[in-house]
Amino acid sequence: MKLRTLILVIVVYGILWAGIWSEPQYIGEGGGVNLTVDNHGVCWCECSNSFFTYNNVSKTWEHVTDVAWGGEPRFDKADTLWVMTVNYTEVYYTRYDGEQWLGPDTVPTYGYGFYAGVHITADSTDGVWVGWITIDVWYAFQTNYNRYKEGKWGEPCLLSDPKDGLDHAFYAMTTDALGRVWMAWHTSSDPDRITTLESVYWDGNAWSEPSVIIDMSDTLWGWGFPIYLHLAPDHEGGVWAFWNQENEQSIYVLASYSSGGGWSAPDTISLAGPFYGDSPYTMSPRGKMTVDKDDNIWAVWRQAVVEKDSLGDIYYSVNSGQGWSEPESVDVNPAFDFNPDIAVDGDGRVWCVWASNRDGEDKYDNSVWASYARASGVEETVTHQLPSFKVEPHIGKTFNFYVPSQVIPGKLEIYDACGRLVKQLTVRSDQTLFWDGTEDAGKRLSPGVYFVRFESHNNLMDKEKIIILH
Q1: Between the CA of residue 126 and those of 147, 148, 294, 370, what are the distances in Å?
Q2: Do residues 269 and 246 make contact, with C-beta atoms less than 8 angstroms apart?
Q3: Which helix (H) or strand (E) holds 228?
Q4: Cα 392 to Cα 267: distance, rounded to the nearest angstrom
Q5: What pLDDT was estimated at residue 225?
Q6: Do residues 151 and 274 both lie within one domain?
Q7: pTM of the prediction?
Q8: What is the DSSP-derived secondary structure letter of residue 162?
Q9: Which among 214, 220, 320, 455 is most buried, taking Cβ atoms within 10 Å?
Q10: Which residues are CB-contacts of 277 (< 8 A; sequence separation ≥ 6)?
C-alpha cells in the first residue's frame, strides 16, 4: 500500500508540471529584459527602454510608455514606477507616475570610486532602497545602500566592513512579507576566488548579523564564481536565494531558503552547462525565481541542451514542497535564447519572458518573448474578492459543493491535473450539491489531484483544488 501511494504521488506530480506553458507571444525588440508587477497585479515588461503590459481583454502585450534608459524597475507602495541604473560614476534613476516620467535624478553616494551592480526594492511604506557596489582605486569591492523615505534620500551607508581586507560585491536585494529588506553579496579574498555568499536583513531598527548562504571552502564546490544571485520572497516572511555556480567548467543551478535564522543546504536544481562561446551571455545560465499564489516556487534559467551549446533554451523547475521538479523547457526553438525573467501577476499567471534571436542569425539582434503557466493548466479570465462556492471536504472519496444564495447560478466543472474536463454540473444558488467522484460517463475517477471551477452567469469565477483518495 505504501509503494502504491508513492507511485501515485510521483505520477501526479509529473503530470502537474509538464508541458504547461502557453504559446510564446512576441512583446518587442531588445536583449535586456526586466519584469515587475504593480500594486494592482498588472505585469510590466521592460525591453529596449520600452514598457509593455498584458491586456486581459485582447490577450496581447501592449506598449505603455518609453523611458530614457533601461534598468531594474520596481513599483513603490504608492504605485510609482522606479527605474534604477548606474553609469560607473553615478547611481541614477527616473520615476513614472502613470502619466509622465520624473527626473532623471541621482542617488546620494560617496562621490568617489566607480559604481556597479545596482539593485532596487520597495519597502513596506512608500519608500525604496537601493544597493550598489563601490569599486575604489585599489579595485576593492564594497557593498553600499541608501534609502528613500518620506520624499527624500538619506545619507549613503557602507554595509560591508572594508577593514577585513576582503571584497564584498553586492548581488541582490528584496523585501519579504514581513517588511524586512534583504541584501546579499559575495565575499572574496581575491578576484578569482569566492569565499562565501552572505546575506543580511533590516528588521526596521538595525541590520542582522551576516548569514552565510554557501561557504565555498566547506562544500563540494570547492571554488568557483557565483553568477547572478537572485532573491525571491515567499508569502510567510522567508526568502529564496537562487544562483549559478561554476565548478570545473560546469555550471550548476542552485537554490537555498531562509526565514531569517540561517540558510538551508543548497539544492541542485539543474546542471545548466557548459556553454560554448566567448561572451558573458553565452557562458551564463542567469536565472530568476518567483513564488506563486499557491506558494509554489518557480525558477527559470538558460539551459545548455547539448555539449558545447552556443544557443541554449529557457528551462524551468517548480518546488511545491516536495522538492524540485525535473527541469523542462519553457520553449524550444533553434535560436540563441538568454536573459530570462519571471513574475506572477494578479490573475495567478506565472509569466516567463526572455530574449531570443529567432528572427535572424545575429545573436545580438534580439526580440523579446513571453509565455505563462498555471499549475493546473486551467485558464482563469476573471478574478474576484469573495468566494463564490465552497468545497467540503477537500480530500476524500466524495465531496459537497455549496453555492451561496447571493451568487447567480451557473456551472461547476471538474478538471484533472492536465486540464482535461472530466465532469460538468449545473448548480442553483443556495444549494449543496453532492458529488461521488465519478466522471460524466459514471466511471469512478482515479485517485489524484483535481481542480473544481465554478462559473456563475454573471462571470463570477472561483477555483479550488481537491484530492481524490481510494
Answers
A1: 11, 9, 27, 30
A2: no
A3: strand 226-233
A4: 36
A5: 58
A6: yes
A7: 0.74
A8: G
A9: 214
A10: 283, 310
